[in-house]
Design brief:
single chain; 51 residues; mainly beta; two-stranded antiparallel sheet; 0% helix
């Protein structure tokens, strides 16, 4: 079910904003990320920031 080749870690949640840190490549805009147990929470990428 999951593609573990590019995993990230949720670092903060503020209302509808979720910050996720990726060590590898960043996902493209409008990608769907699945998180949580059994990947039941779905997040759409709306902005990508490189630090």
């Amino acid at each position: 079910m999951s593609n573990l080749s590019n995993t990230g870690v949720v670092v903060s949640v503020r209302g509808g904003v979720v910050d996720i840190r990726f060590d590898g490549d960043l996902p493209p805009i409008h990608s769907v990320l699945r998180v949580g147990q059994e990947e039941r929470i779905i997040i759409e990428v709306l902005r990508v920031c490189r630090t």
